[in-house]
Design a protein that fits this description.
Helices cover 47% and strands 16% of the residues. The chain is globular, with a radius of gyration of 19 Å. With 250 residues, the protein is α/β, with parallel strands linked by helices. Strand 4 and strand 5 (202-209) form a beta hairpin. It folds into 2 domains: 1-55, no CATH class; 67-249, Endonuclease, Chain A (2-Layer Sandwich). Helix 3 (27-36) runs antiparallel to helix 4 (42-54) and helix 9 packs antiparallel against helix 11. The protein has helices spanning 2-8, 12-19, 27-36, 42-54, 70-80, 100-106, 112-125, 143-147, 153-167, 219-235, 239-249, and strands spanning 82-89, 136-142, 172-177, 191-196, 202-209, 212-216.
Length: 250
């Protein structure tokens, strides 16, 4: 197991879940393993790749078409397979907590033909919050994100009120990071930690950037971001104080 984890540059919990059938394997990971084990028979490789795709063939995003980037499909798979999502945003409201009007403003920089697809996809993702028994969201939002909500006053109020309502869910916790928060690191990029279902649970870090997103699965990387998360939640306002801060902005 350790050997496979090193080859895939991930933690052993992920390998254990794949071996036990608790999660599927990404096509890229499968290609790496086939090469590592010297599997060269094209028919066998094609068969294994077909089986890997079959695992998620019923996922709702599988029919969203080519405009949905491959890295976004990875994100959707991670999110759907998670029991806990911890996300930090410095300049934006977290995607699962956005209103449709806020989304449209965010996606305004995208090609016109893909805006509707991305809005539809994000709205569909929000349905995860309705699964209160098996899905939890923890969000830390930096103060600038709350003051950079563009659009009319109605759009701003709508988003802030929506954020308050979502924070009232039993499976959602929102904390606001004040400007004077004391952190060991001055600059932290937005990041999300997905805790995958299964035994043992596996944490995977997602970093989003201008051209897409990337995954961090090495134990030392995950530990670094887990530590950063603990520091953020310790420095942020309590959930109750955060609710009051948002309320004062209305």
């Amino acid at each position: 197991m350790q050997e496979v984890a090193e080859v895939l540059e991930c933690g052993q919990p992920k390998v254990s879940q794949i071996e036990n059938g608790k999660r599927g394997i990404r096509p890229l990971d499968l290609t790496v393993l086939l090469k590592h084990y010297g599997v060269e028979d094209e028919r066998q490789c094609a068969s294994l790749r077909r089986l890997a795709k079959e695992i998620h063939k019923v996922d709702w995003w599988s029919n969203q078409g080519p405009l949905l980037r491959e890295d976004l499909r990875d994100l959707l798979t991670l999110e759907a397979d998670s029991e806990l999502v911890r996300t930090y945003e410095s300049m934006l409201i977290p995607g699962l907590l956005q209103t449709e009007r806020y989304m449209r403003q965010t996606f305004a920089v995208y090609p016109a033909e893909s805006v509707e697809l991305h809005v539809e996809t994000r709205m569909k993702r929000k349905e995860l919050l309705d699964n209160q028994a098996d899905f939890c969201l923890r969000a830390v939002i930096d103060v600038p994100a709350l003051h950079r909500i563009g659009g009319s006053r109605d759009v701003v109020r709508d988003q802030l009120e929506h954020l308050q309502r979502e924070a009232d869910r039993p499976n959602v916790k929102v904390q606001v990071l004040p400007l004077d928060a004391a952190l060991p690191q001055d600059q932290l990029p937005p990041f999300t930690i997905f805790r995958q279902r299964g035994e043992p649970p596996a944490d995977i870090v997602w970093l989003e950037h201008i051209t897409g997103g990337s995954l961090l699965e090495q134990r030392q990387d995950v530990l670094r971001y887990s530590t950063a998360w603990d520091e953020l939640t310790a420095a942020a306002l309590s959930p109750a104080a955060s609710q009051q801060y948002i309320r004062d902005l209305l």
